[in-house]
Amino acid sequence: MRLFLLSLVVCWFATGCATVQRPAPLTQADVISMVKAGASEEDVMRRIAASGTVFYLNADDVVRLRQEGVSDRLVTFMMETATRAAVAEQRRQDMYYHQQFHFGYWWGPRCR
Description:
By secondary structure, this protein is mainly alpha-helical. The chain has one domain. 71% of the residues lie in helices and 0% in strands. Helix 3 (41-51) packs parallel to helix 5 (72-106). The protein is flat. It starts with a helix and ends in a 6-residue tail after the last helix.
């Protein structure tokens, strides 16, 4: 039994320490260089999504990106990263709020 528990703990530590790190966030300059290097829109979008980069673009940024040859579709995708991040954060907060009261309701005075 001790050997089983020991092997279980070793396996747990071995798998828990092997974490996959997210790529570094991309910058606008990175996106421009990928576009100029000939990367497809889908490839650039995939890299942005994989890195979890959130772009907060203002009008000057949009104009600069368009002048550098970034397509409208890619610029729109970059602008939507801020909206997607805000929605994801709101969902996390709502889930926390819901779970907090959900368990309180079930484990509250009615269960006695």
